Amino acid sequence: MDDLVRLLTLQDSTTRVVMAGTALLAVAAAVVGTLAMLRRRALVGDAVAHASLPGICLAWLIAGDRGLAVLLLGAFVLGLACIGTIALVQRSSRAREDATTAIAIGGFFGLGIVLSRLIQNQPGGNRAGLDGFLFGKAASAVAGDAWLVLAVAVVVVGAVIALRKELALLCFDRAFAGGIGRPVHRFDALLLVLVALVTVAGLPSVGVVLMVAMLVIPPAAARFWSESLNTIMVVAAAIGGVSAVLGTGLSAVLPAPGGAAGGWPTGPIIVLTASSAFVFSLLVAPERGLLASILRRRRLRNSVHGAGGEVLR
To answer: How many domains are contained in the chain?
Structure first.
């Protein structure tokens, strides 16, 4: 407990950087993830995350550079290519959106695994460090990574705040937005680009496999607490940020299983912390939680039985 308090009070310089980066990432992911969830585009982040792996591999093969900026640029380009592929297939065929998204996830991720194995078989390829992008490696973050995440978070949150009304209209009534002359296709594309930015920025922290959880779990948990879009985004950002800080701290202080070196992985612990917040919200939210629903049904049943008894008397 003393170690966790020390970390949470930012007395550890290494963990301070990791906490700052993951918290900023979680807040940005929660804000844009709220809009993606309401627009029913939550799985697009999953597709972009899986498409980023071949992008990282191609960037390494082309540039021969393991610099984070180069690898993330390749991931972003392939992420946009994945989004374009999904849109093209939907427009040129009768395939459903969930089917095209699943196809893109499988196809791009399969390509990424093949390219990754190709790199590993090259001289010096085993030092490329590409495996760290699968599940994340937040513990190795440096100050430059935190600044990169800060820049992405400012751009994403700033764009959402500036275009909040238009994006909200897109999420709740796309047909009406188009009817009053709003460029819905452009706003839809902008939302997907924001999702891609956050997803790519989160790869070093939580990895390809878990990034979609940071886009979906905090907004889904916040949805239990309010009907207002602004409130949902604020609560989702709070859940994401707190989960990132607590998850980072717990991964640093919890003893590794069997006394193994390295401790617990940061990304999965962050996701599990956010999942705990979701379960808590599911159970105890005052209006939409399971306990509240059970109490309402019980009160209704008692009221009906009481009314029936009065009629019989």
So the answer is: 1
